[in-house]
Amino acid sequence: MKRNWNSSTICVQGGYIPGNGETRTLPIYQSTTFKYDTSEELAKLFDLAEDGHIYTRISNPTCSMVEKKIAELEGGVGAMLTSSGQAASLISVFNIASAGDNFVMMSNLYGGTTNLFLVTMKRMGIEARVATSDMSDDEICSLFDERTRCFFGETIANPSLEVFDFDRFVPIAHSMGVPVIIDNTFATPVLCRPFSFGADIVVHSTTKYMDGHATVVGGCIVDGGSFDWEKDGRYPELSEPDESYHGVVYTKNFGKAAYITKARTQLMRDLGSTPQPISAFLLNLGLETLDVRIRRHSENALKVAEYLKSRPDIIETVSYPGLADDSEHERAGKYLLDGMASGVVSFCIKGGRENAMKFMDSLKLAAIVTHVADARTCVLNPASTTHRQLSDEMLRKAGIEPGFVRFSVGIEDVRDIISDIEEALKACR
Ligand SMILES: *Cc1c(COP(=O)(O)O)cnc(C)c1O
What we know:
This protein has about 425 residues and is of the alpha/beta class.
């Protein structure tokens, strides 16, 4: 069906279009398997000669409809849901890299992704090479060689909140012959559509703003369909016969959707990090209100950041790309819808770890949780939780000030959020 809907309409109605007399809301196909009349029909599915569902580990109608919605939101040719954001990141790279290959990652990725890439994937024989935004173009180019398979970055990095410089990094990666994979979790496709800035593959932790209610862990990979996998023979797994599918050649048989088809029919089949239909249903409920929520998150977060700026007596530094004097402000204006920078604000309290803990313990509306990016305001101090074992000196080396607080602004009335902060700051003096 050819439609030309705007993003907010796709959020509400995309993916599932009911026919006459069908359920108004997305149906949950809670079934592991699917019935066929003849073995011949099923055999065609196994040969990838025809479309259809075989087994829920590989695909499921409820999941497919949510995948369609997300692909439409991002402007991609296809998408695949995964059981978590971590699974999406792993499969996005592993789909085009094998033992002996390498890839380039930005230094500011989410901690879980950094660990996956630098520690766990290394054990699979795949080496991640780290680029920082203060390196020169030549220094970054020198990280690539003929075994490099992709370049991986985050639109708005968690938690440093650096905004990915598409106009700088995309041409570098493409000139080196590799695609750009972007983790678009913090921006969501409402605030940024990475494909329109030249990225080739997008991944999400749907656990965050997409679900938005902290109900279900999940991830997604979206294929932009733009990368030429056949160009210089760098991706034989896509451009040469797959023995596990009777010699299917993904680029020949599936054209622009080669990458996402392989990710599903080969890696999801073998690794099995599948979302449940009920999880896809819950994710879809979140997606229906994503456009409204992310605007409110952004609006509230800007007001919170401005308030924190007005408290130099106790707040040392504030990072939020929406602030006019923030180092990321220019790029936020360029790549994010109306410069809206989503809901996470980072700041540093004077008095280090001790004051940061006092502040957090005194909050009443904002909850201390290991989460970000849902409807309820929440807060995390890496020094006293995720990085607890490190001394202050080791923390600084890891780029984390002891008084650093990651504050995820919810969609409550911002006056209540700010007065909660104001009261809690009194405990710090
Ligand atoms: C949380 C997060 C992930 C990991 O996602 P899970 O759903 O927790 O597995 C990846 N990238 C970013 C930017 C995240 O914030």
